[in-house]
Specification:
- By secondary structure, the chain is mostly helical.
- The protein folds into three domains: about 70 residues, lambda repressor-like DNA-binding domains (434 Repressor (Amino-terminal Domain), Orthogonal Bundle); about 55 residues; about 30 residues, no CATH class.
- It contains eight helices and four strands.
- The protein has a two-stranded antiparallel sheet with strand order 1-2. Strands 3-4 form a two-stranded antiparallel sheet.
- A hairpin with a 6-residue loop joins strand 3 and strand 4.
- It is elongated.
- The two termini are about 40 Å apart.
- About 5% of the residues have low confidence.
Length: about 170
């Protein structure tokens, strides 16, 4: 059972509508709908408030299945595209060498493999620069930039972990 399914089941068991839950949490009905459909996920603070409004513990709201399904529990997916492209280039270079060694009369295919190998290897070297030189890892965590210090951090904290800027104060 996902977190959204758990929220919906507990809400319906209390005979509460999405609008009533939204009003008690000071959010819109669409926000509750997005949580229940799985399109969005409430943060930890909101999850605690949801559990309190529904009259259950946070542990009861977030089941073991929900924790296992969480994208935060999964390993970040590294993008090895550049390595794959470079290995393809190396393979083509080796193939060209074998073609040259095996058949000295017909150099057309070996030349094509040699040129394509160089192009693939060079393209593989350039792929990381396309992403701004940053590691191409999908961390799956929302990023927020602090307006005071300009640093990014992973979670939507009420305060910046670097300079303690309070997001709740305007």
């Amino acid at each position: 059972m996902s977190l959204g399914d758990s929220i919906k089941a507990k809400r319906e068991a209390l005979g509460m509508t999405q609008q009533e839950l939204a009003e008690k949490l000071f959010v819109s009905r669409q926000t509750v709908s997005r949580w229940e459909s799985g399109a969005r996920c409430p943060d930890v603070i909101m999850s605690k408030r949801i559990a309190m409004v529904l009259g259950i513990s946070l542990d009861d709201l977030i089941t073991k299945e929900t924790a296992a399904e969480s994208p935060l529990m999964k390993e970040p997916a590294a993008d090895f595209t550049c390595i794959k492209v470079m290995l393809t280039g190396i393979f083509l270079e080796v193939l060209a060498a074998f073609l040259i060694a095996a058949d000295t009369d017909n150099m057309d295919w070996s030349a094509v493999c040699f040129v394509l190998g160089i192009i693939c290897f060079a393209a593989g070297l350039c792929i990381p620069f396309h992403s701004g030189g940053k590691p191409m890892i999908d961390e799956g965590l929302p990023q927020k930039t602090c307006p005071r210090c300009g640093k990014e951090h992973d979670f939507d904290y009420p305060k910046c972990p670097h300079c303690q800027y309070d997001y709740t104060q305007k």
